[in-house]
Amino acid sequence: MSDVAPSPPTRSTIARYAPLLLVASCIAVLVAMAFISPFRSPPPSVTVADALIGSDNDPTGAYMVISNPGGPDTLLSASSPAASSVVLQEAGSSSAPTTVARIDVPGFADLRLQPGGDQLLLRGLVAPLAVGQRVPVTLEFERSGTITVEAEVATYTTIADRLLPPRLKLPGEQ
Q1: Is residue 19 located within the same domain as residue 74?
Q2: Rounded CA separation 83/132 (Å)
Q3: pLDDT in tens, the chain (174 residues)
Q4: CA 7, CA 5: separation in Å to the nearest integer?
Q5: How far, in Å, CA of 137 to CA of 53, rounded?
Q6: Are residues 99 and 143 in the same domain?
Q7: How far apart are CA 96 and CA 111, in angstroms?
Q8: Number of structural domains, the chain?
Q9: Is 86 found in the same domain as 33?
Q10: Residue 148: which H helix or E strand, with range?
Q11: Which of 73, 93, 98, 109 is the right S-S partner for 105, CB 3.0 to 4.6 Å?
């Protein structure tokens, strides 16, 4: 038997394992950074569009599109001087919406309050609402604070046309 010492690593051996060592080092740095400074969701940036209120009913629904290109938020409550109360409702598994204490507003997405889905229900109207009238609705968010929008009073046909996907029209509808 020969008592020959193993030869030191050669350049070809180092070059062969260098990409693997580089990738492992990068992963180790990323894992260390995640523990030192974890990723934080950006703050919510809530805006409201297409705010509409149904006419001719008491109670009546309020509908809108809440856009949030930031982190998640929560709608805690709503109010309006046009009604004695405004209730948050989510679409339930049954045909009737369920009253809830809060509605989650997903981050980086739109929350659509629309007929047949999540909605605000205005109860105890102070006066009848007329089509075309503008009604203030104040929304209270957990992280975004208070936002007041001017909702337009419209017929449910107009609300469906503006907020729901295209649908077949009944004979005589415009």
Answers
A1: no
A2: 17
A3: 556 666 666 777 777 787 888 888 889 888 877 777 666 778 899 999 999 999 978 999 999 999 999 999 999 999 999 999 999 999 977 778 899 999 999 999 999 999 989 999 999 999 999 999 999 999 999 999 999 999 999 999 899 889 988 766 566 666
A4: 6
A5: 10
A6: yes
A7: 19
A8: 2
A9: no
A10: strand 145-154
A11: 73
Other beta carbons less than 10 A from residue 131's beta carbon? 12
Token pair, residue 79, equals: 């109010």
Ramachandran bin of 26, using left for φ above 0, alpha for ψ from -120 to 50, beta for the remaining angles:
alpha
pTM: 0.75
CB atoms within 10 A of CB 105: 24
Domain membership of residue 1 (yes or no) is no
In this structure, the answer to whether residues 97 and 51 fall within a common structural domain is yes
Q: State in Å, rounded, how far the first CA of the chain is from the last one.
A: 99
78 & 147 share domain:
yes
Assess whether 13 and 65 both reside in one domain. no
Domain span including residue 93 = 47-163
CB 137 within 8 A of CB 73: no
